[in-house]
């Protein structure tokens, strides 16, 4: 397990770039953390590093936001908070997203844990105070 300390928002870009570089063979990233821990903020930093041409935003109500990079690649940002069952996840076509080799950044992955591949990158975000976060990456 890798442990990274983030002390300010100005460090997000560097940490996001390092995560994408260190796990360049992986496409599925699951983000664990309490409400307000910074999951969406960190995913926005990852999207910026991937040079998406859209504006990254929380997919809480849409469940899945789809972005395009400047190279035309797809990036999916998922928020499973409102998913009530695995059947509901299947109804939205979750397996199509997970199997198409695009980046998938998933918030609240515990809702669909049984559907996630074993080679996903798990990122646990803990809030220490207003600015400081601890990332534990497996």
What's the SSE blueprint?
Blueprint: E1 2-6, H1 12-22, E2 28-32, H2 39-49, E3 64-68, E4 74-79, H3 86-91, H4 94-98, E5 103-107, E6 121-127, E7 133-137
Parallel strand pairs: 2-5, 2-6, 4-5
Antiparallel strand pairs: 1-7, 3-4, 6-7
Helix pairs in contact: 1-2
In short:
By secondary structure, this protein is an alpha/beta fold. Helix content is 24%, strand content 28%.
Description:
The longest helix has 11 residues. This protein is an alpha/beta fold and 138 residues long. α1 packs across α2. The protein has one domain: Rossmann fold (3-Layer(aba) Sandwich), CATH 3.40.50.300. Helices cover 24% and strands 28% of the residues.
Give the oligomeric state of the chains in this entry, treating copies of one chain as homo and distinct chains as hetero: single chain
Number of strands: 7
SSE string, helices as H and strands as E: EHEHEEHHEEE
- Estimate the mean pLDDT confidence: 93
Fraction of residues in helices?
10-25%
Looking at the structure, the CATH topology is Rossmann fold
- Detail the poorly predicted runs: none
Question: What key phrases describe this protein's structure?
Answer:
alpha/beta, single chain, seven-stranded mixed β-sheet
């Amino acid at each position: 397990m890798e442990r990274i300390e983030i002390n300010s928002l100005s460090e997000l870009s560097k940490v996001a770039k390092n995560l994408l570089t260190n796990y360049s063979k992986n496409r599925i990233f699951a983000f664990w953390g309490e409400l307000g821990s910074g999951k969406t903020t960190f995913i926005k930093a990852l999207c910026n590093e991937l040079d998406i041409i859209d504006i990254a935003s929380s997919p809480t109500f849409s469940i899945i936001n789809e972005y395009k990079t400047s190279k035309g690649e797809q990036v999916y940002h998922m928020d499973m908070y409102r998913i009530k069952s695995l059947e509901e996840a299947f109804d939205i076509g979750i397996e199509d997203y997970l199997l198409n080799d695009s980046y998938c950044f998933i918030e609240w992955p515990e809702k669909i844990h049984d559907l996630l591949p074993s080679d996903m990158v798990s990122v646990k975000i803990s809030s220490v105070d207003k600015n400081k976060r601890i990332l534990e990456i497996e």
